Amino acid sequence: MTTKASVGVLGLGTMGANLALNLADQGGQTVALFNRTTIKAQELADANPAFAKSLVPTDSLERFVEALATPRIIILMVQAGAAVDEQIAALKPLLDKGDIVIDAGNADFNDTRRRAAQLKDSPIRFVGMGVSGGELGARHGPSIMAGGDADVYAIIGPILERIAAKYQGAPCVAHMGPDGAGHFVKTIHNGIEYADMEMIAEVYGIMRDGLGLKAADAAKVFTRWNAGDLASYLIEISGVTLAEIDPDTGKPMVDVIVDEAGQKGTGRWAVIEAQKLAVSATTLEAAVSARIISAHRAERARTGAIYDLGATEKLTGVDLDALEKALETAKIIAYAQGFVIMQEASKTFGWNLPLGKIAEIWRAGCIIRSRFLDAITRAFDASETPENLLQVPEFVKRVKAGQGALRRVVAQAVLAGIPVPALSAALAYFDDLRRRRGTANLIQAQRDLFGAHTFRRLDRDGVFHHEWPPV
Ligand code: ATR
């Protein structure tokens, strides 16, 4: 081999293989390949003769490292967790000062922070990078959230810009901040994705069980909505999936698919981190919980048999326009929660997350891509960073116009016994947040009674304890 490879991909599962092809194709890179099951590297090269000149399969870690030009850029795309630590440990003695190791897997950002700290004084420059968009994204253009030091990003950024998705020509990649910032933002992206999908599924449930729409009719509604304010990849694929017919039975595909949702855990991570940061993420929580309940199908069948309440009340005052408005409003609220989590994390970890930029790079390549994100970018690009998107004039207008519909939809669904956990969580958060006199005064009184936890008063400064009557 005369010229050395400009980048290496270690881990050639679905994501790694697609990323390697993207790097060779759109990226214009010469890509060294290595995989634990070594034959996969040669197989990938053989299967893609069009990139024969730019794919360099290797059959040992040593040869992989040797195949790379310095400073080496190595993208790890192995299973998240122990495999990443193992591969870093194996690479470490083979690498030179300034070599860059990028973990592009779905890492827990806490692990990324730990790894960044462990590698701080080593020759390796470590980058934790969130890659969103699934296998198609990896191959044709993902949304990329890079962490690590800014000077390392200056080196890898130009390559990432070439392989990233483009939104009106702008690459969907940016530097999020040091250590775990990239993986954290990816985690919150997934949490928002859970909430967005659950809300869409709840609205589909109302169409199906409350309004009696057949899948094909619901498909038409989503397709129509995709031309309006809700336009997004998730609304688009809702229309596509609902319209699809099962070739075996002639029934709509969605009607033969088991109603149990899978999950890989990133939604749960988002919720856990929000809780640790003491930020409300109720729409995300509701979405994770709904997936959990969905997976308990046998238990639902047994409970359903006990509580068969007969015919439910008919929905009144809920038409498709109200559903559209309700979904849009709840979506704004869910995204507001997602961005508050990131704002809080940014402060806590000293990241200075580029919030407007995050909305910008989510406009293409990733699952929650939508035009709607433009408005979020505008909100964070304004001179003053908003405390909460719900206070930004553009969203205030939309929420004021849509909250009545959300209220009606949630109320009618509840009366009809149709579960709407994420939509109602959005509404409850909204009502809680705009309630100037809450009810935690009673909680504080109770805490003071049973634990002398003290309370503050409205009419004077200080911390107080009251001698409550004995109970
Ligand atoms: P995918 O990318 O297909 O979604 P994944 O499970 O996240 O799947 O990652 C699979 C990749 O991680 C494979 O390249 C796998 O190597 P093998 O082909 O040898 O199975 C790699 N991988 C998993 N555990 C690993 C480990 N402990 N060390 C090195 N590579 C590992």
Automatic annotation (TrEMBL):
Protein name from the UniProt record: 6-phosphogluconate dehydrogenase, decarboxylating
Function in brief: Catalyzes the oxidative decarboxylation of 6-phosphogluconate to ribulose 5-phosphate and CO(2), with concomitant reduction of NADP to NADPH.
Cross-referenced InterPro entries: 6-PGluconate_DH-like_C_sf, 6PGD_dom2, 6PGDH_C, 6PGDH_Gnd/GntZ, 6PGDH_NADP-bd, 6PGdom_BS, NAD(P)-bd_dom_sf, Pgluconate_DH
Pathways involved: Carbohydrate degradation; pentose phosphate pathway; D-ribulose 5-phosphate from D-glucose 6-phosphate (oxidative stage): step 3/3
Enzyme Commission number, as recorded: 1.1.1.44
Positions annotated to bind NADP(+): G11, L12, G13, T14, M15, G16, N35, R36, T37, V78, Q79, A80, N106
Binding site for substrate: N106, S132, G133, G134, H189, N190, Y194, K264, R291, R447, H453
NCBIfam families: gnd, PRK09287.1
Sequence ranges assigned to domain 6-phosphogluconate dehydrogenase C-terminal in this UniProt record: 182-469
A GO biological process held by the record: D-gluconate metabolic process
PROSITE patterns in alphabetical order: 6PGD (PS00461)
Keyword Transmembrane helix: yes
Membership in a protein family: Belongs to the 6-phosphogluconate dehydrogenase family.
Pfam families xref list: 6PGD (PF00393), NAD_binding_2 (PF03446)
Any GO MF annotation of the entry: NADP binding
Segments traversing the membrane: 409-430
The keyword Transmembrane belongs to this UniProt entry's keyword annotation: yes
SMART domains: 6PGD (SM01350)
